[in-house]
């Protein structure tokens, strides 16, 4: 006898995902980290590391922040960190940065290490469709803006559209948090 | 009976397809691990019921149970194993095949009736 159908199991999975805040927490952390890095880049005119590594470092910082946040959240809620943990994602990003020296010379591939793109790759790995959509759209707009800026405006406005991407991630994270609260 | 004629229901895994165990494995597949109070809450189970099903799954190596303490409070976590993930994925494939077979037969009957 089949007791559950696929839709019921999908709903159950969505409830667990919502209770884990699996969409809102990473969007808020990535958004705020991006905003801090953009403000430093734009207003203070300071890069934490040489420019090509500035945004990959932002992604790594967000992942490293998510690691303890998820541990605390997991201990409080009694729900684990899911199938692909932020610790593993951070380790993989470090491996890519260390082993993938080619990224230094291939500016387009370097964009994949930008915060919203890293979040999209992570979401696809976690099979989290909503997070992948939000971060994919925001990341896509950041990359389009980068191209337009580079071609039309000599690349001076990067901090503005990266900062706007950070704000968009935070706003999307807040919207997702409301959605998760309704499901949970 | 040839392999092609074999009904997918025959491939259902007795260890997994009971509804509470299927739901437990689904929750643990998504969460990685979960503690007893959360599993009880999300699935609406009693202590005894949850414990019995988790023990059955642990006996088959599909989940691992870790009993520990946080401060003075005892806390028990259930974690899905790689074998558990494989068993759940296989079960979902069989359920999908069953559903497809049901739809095909229903569509065939409707076409014959019209």
Automatic annotation (TrEMBL), chain A:
UniProt keyword annotations, A-Z: Membrane, Transmembrane, Transmembrane helix
Keyword Transmembrane helix: yes
Segments passing through the bilayer: 22-40, 46-67, 88-105, 133-153
Statement: the UniProt record of this protein carries the keyword Membrane: yes
Record-given protein name: Uncharacterized protein
Lineage: Bacteria, Bacillati, Actinomycetota, Actinomycetes, Micromonosporales
Automatic annotation (TrEMBL), chain B:
Domain HTH marR-type: 15-107
One Pfam family per UniProt: HTH_34
InterPro entries named in the record: HTH_MarR-typ (IPR000835), WH-like_DNA-bd_sf (IPR036388), WH_DNA-bd_dom (IPR027395), WH_DNA-bd_sf (IPR036390)
One annotated GO molecular function: DNA-binding transcription factor activity
PANTHER family per UniProt: BSL7504 PROTEIN
Protein name per the record: Transcriptional regulator
């Amino acid at each position: 006898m089949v007791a559950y159908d696929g839709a019921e199991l999908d709903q159950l999975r969505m409830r667990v995902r919502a209770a884990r805040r699996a969409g809102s927490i990473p969007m808020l952390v990535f958004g705020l980290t991006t905003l801090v890095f953009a403000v430093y880049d734009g207003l203070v005119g300071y890069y934490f590391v040489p420019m090509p590594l500035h945004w990959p470092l932002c992604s790594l910082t967000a992942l490293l922040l998510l690691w303890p946040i998820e541990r605390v959240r997991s201990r409080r809620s009694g729900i684990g960190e899911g199938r692909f943990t932020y610790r593993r994602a951070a380790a993989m990003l470090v491996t890519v940065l260390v082993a993938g020296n080619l990224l230094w010379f291939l500016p387009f591939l370097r964009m994949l290490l930008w915060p919203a793109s890293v979040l999209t790759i992570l979401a696809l790995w976690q099979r989290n469709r909503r997070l992948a959509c939000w971060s994919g759209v925001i990341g896509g707009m950041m990359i389009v803006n980068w191209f337009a800026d580079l071609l039309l405006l000599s690349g001076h406005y990067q901090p503005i559209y990266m900062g706007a991407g950070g704000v968009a991630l935070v706003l999307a994270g807040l919207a997702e948090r409301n959605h998760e609260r309704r499901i949970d | 009976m040839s392999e092609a004629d074999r009904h997918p229901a025959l491939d259902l895994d007795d260890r997994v397809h009971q509804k509470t165990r299927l739901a437990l494995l689904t929750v643990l597949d998504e969460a990685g691990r979960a503690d007893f109070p959360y599993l009880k809450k999300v699935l609406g189970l009693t202590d005894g019921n949850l414990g019995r099903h988790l023990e059955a799954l642990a006996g088959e190596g599909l989940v691992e149970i870790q009993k520990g303490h946080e401060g003075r409070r005892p806390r028990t976590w259930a974690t899905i194993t790689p074998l558990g993930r494989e068993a759940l994925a296989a079960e979902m494939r069989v359920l999908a095949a069953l559903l497809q077979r049901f739809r095909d037969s229903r569509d065939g009957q409707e076409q014959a009736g019209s």
